[in-house]
Design goal:
It is built from four helices and six strands; from the N terminus they run βαββαβαββα. The chain is α+β, with helices and mostly antiparallel strands.
Length: about 150
Amino acid sequence: MNGVTRITSEQDIMMITFTAQAAASLSDVLTAFAEKGIVVDMICQNAPRAATFDFSFTLSANYFDTAMQTIGAYRAGAGSAPLISSGYSKINLFGEEMVSSCGVAALALRTLREAEIEISLITTSDLDISLLVRAENEDRALDVLRAAFAV
């Protein structure tokens, strides 16, 4: 058993990355987005560098206008502008047995590397692995991952 029972995807995803932020920034940004009713996904924070860190999160491109307004209001007088990119798909590998299965992430990452599909962001939990890939690679990523995991 490989731990994966379902592989799905979501299209039209955008990613926002804030660089060199103070410790309180992530909660402040997420609060500002929540107050505007924007659902965020795939939250990823890197290890701190001195007193700052970078963080990224994804959201549906349907929120683009509201997200831009929220960033503008949040940034008033703050640091550098975030990096905003679109044209992604989120691939989700799910399985209740992932919690006790070894090598699931290794197989997924190796499979995509061998297919020359770049991963822009990864998040995990006990039951799933989410991988952000360019939209033009979605179909190929689904094909190779489904073959690798026999799903």
